[in-house]
Structure formats: C-alpha cells, structure tokens
Amino acid sequence: MRDVDPPGKDASGEDHRRGHRSRLKDRFARVGRDGLADYEFLELILFRSIPQRDVKPLAKELIGRFGSVAEVLGAPIARLCEIDGVGEQTAIDFKIVEAAGRELAKGAVGKRQVLSSWASVIDYCRAAMAFAEKEQFRILFLDKRNGLLADEVQQTGTVDHTPVYPREVLKRALELSASAIILVHNHPSGDPTPSDADVRMTREIADIAKPLGVVVHDHIIVGRNGHASLKGLRLM
C-alpha cells in the first residue's frame, strides 16, 4: 500500500493542514511530549512519513487499534500495514523511532552502575521487550562494579514460552568474565506476574551460579501492564 494524498484536496484544505501541522509542532517545541495527547504525538511522526495528507484520523485509528504510542511503535510491520493508510515505509519509520528510543534507554543504562540506576534498567527493559509479540529471554551481564558488560537476548520463544537452559546462561557469563547477571523476560499477555516455572528457573540458575562466583541480582519480568521483580517479591 502506498502512502498517498487522497484526491480532491483544495487550496483551503491544504492551508488548513499546513496550519495544523505548524501549530502542533510549535506546541511540541513549547511544552514537549507531555503536553500532547497520544494521537498528537503520533501525528508528529506521521507528518514526515505522509507529508500530503491529514493524518489525524489515522493517528487516532492507530491508538484505537493498539492502545498507546508505545504499542504502536512496538507493533510488527505486518500488523501496522493492516491499517488502511499505513504503507510499508510508514511502518518502517515507526520502527526507526522505536529503535531510537531503545538506544536512548540503553545509553542511560550503559553509562552507569546498573544497580544504582534501577529506574533506567526498568525503562530500558520495558522499551526493549514489553510490547514484543513473542517471549524473549534477555540477560544483562555485569562486571565487579556492576557496570554493564553485555546485554544479550539468549532465546526467543512463542507467545507464552521461551526455552531457557541454565547451564548455557552460566557458560556465557563465564565467557564474559561476568561477576553478576540480571535475568529479564517479557510476558506478551501484558501481565508481568511470575509463573511457577519462572520462579523455578530463576532458582535453578542461581543455584548453579553461586559456586561459580556469579551473583544473580534479580529476574525482571516486563509486560504492557508493568513489571515484576522476583527479588522484590521475595521469590528468589
């Protein structure tokens, strides 16, 4: 599908569109993201993707279909292109914005001691995984000062299961000379509540890690509806 301007636009319609775009950009410059509704923020992105069209109805439809800006940006390209008016290039533009957001969040984590910037860790994990349609199992590998050595996705599974192999997790930690790890995975259902299997797997990894001198600081589960910390819940 091509992103095209529908026929029949007269000069006054074009002037109104330009005026709306200028006003919205000016408001963003003055008050920032928090001063805009979700659909208005999407409009700002769509302005560059679809320069010759009133994109407000499309922005509202996207929010109505997916629920939030984050869920629009996190949606797969194929699902985005199911929306009338969203072509492949527009969908790719959304994915570029999503990737930029992840890089910003990752930068906030990578420049600090991870345990002293816990809010940044949570923000990064949510940006990276909360809206994925399949489960992913991610590990943050830390050095002796709790600085980030590496951030790796170890496994990608189905909508409700990811195979995790504890000995492979520890093998990789030893390869990187990591002193500690943080386990992270997502629940595509949106509910971050740990399952019994999540708790068992975490304890198994911690049991294998301890004699090897590797500390498991936490296991974070993220979803659209928030996050859960197994350490905070006293489940490890």
From TrEMBL:
Biased composition annotated in UniProt, kind: Basic and acidic residues: 1-17
Superkingdom of source: Bacteria
One Pfam family per UniProt: RadC
GO molecular function: metal ion binding; metallopeptidase activity
Keywords noted in UniProt: Hydrolase, Metal-binding, Metalloprotease, Protease, Zinc
Domain MPN: 114-236
Gene3D superfamilies recorded: Cytidine Deaminase, domain 2
Region (Disordered), start-end ranges: 1-22
CDD domains for this protein: MPN_DUF2466
Protein name, per record: DNA repair protein RadC
